[in-house]
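Lecture notes, structural biology module. Today: joint structure prediction for complexes of two components.
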Amino acid sequence: MKIATYNVNGIKARLPRLLEWLADTQPDIACLQEIKTSDETFPEADILAAGYQAVWHGQKGFNGVAILSKTPLSHIRNGLDGEDEDDHSRYIEADVADSAGHLIRIASIYLPNGNPQPGPKFDYKLRWMERLRAHAAALLALEMPVVLAGDYNVIPTDSDIANPAAMKDDALMQPESRAVFRRIVTQGWTDALRTIHPTGPLWTFWDYQAGAWQRDAGFRIDHLLLSPEAADRLVDAGVDKDHRAREKASDHAATWISLRDD
DNA sequence: ATGCCTAAGCCCCTTAGA
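The predicted structure, tokenised, for the full assembly:
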């Protein structure tokens, strides 16, 4: 089965492009971020017409996450524990059944950007990452296939960006951000994209500005982390770059994995 | 040192993004 993550940068502005991508690439599950819509205005009818069920956790104007699936979804939770006053919609989790009827746990994650740093937005990013780390540990203890997919807003290493010097002060590649990401991964998660493509350029985001796409000046911030039970079934992974080149594209490309049937 | 683009709401400017 194919599981993708796609920061759409506005589901209303991106709807034709999103529907085209779903039809072209046929993911079984699609985790979306930055849907930038309230719960009431989520375009459920269009998603259903495209053959997908959905659960979503929206917010007016910015943030917002969703999970689409060709088969029924069982909604588990919105949000992470640990900060009651946090009203950003950045986390949703659901179960889906694979072809053998076994459950797979899926999370769609929109981790805070954290710029500018230092400052309160960066502090919020690090706190949010700690909350994710705590929840990820609990998910590992389930000993089931789990896929934590989304826009992590973390460039894990200097090999994950075309021009590290240009971004050296950016929240996406600070040592503190990288350290928490690494602490999450070393709990026992597998970074699916780097497992299939260990070296070389592997970008999932190209800025709209300064001709970044044309210069291929991108970086890798969209990640799929797999529990051991999911990693055992990993057969392929990639980035849907061609859709990034089209008119009215998101600044992110969809990033996907393929899992063997259980 | 700054803006470079884009989306959305506060809607013709501002906020947020990365």
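Point to remember: The mean pLDDT of chain A is 97.
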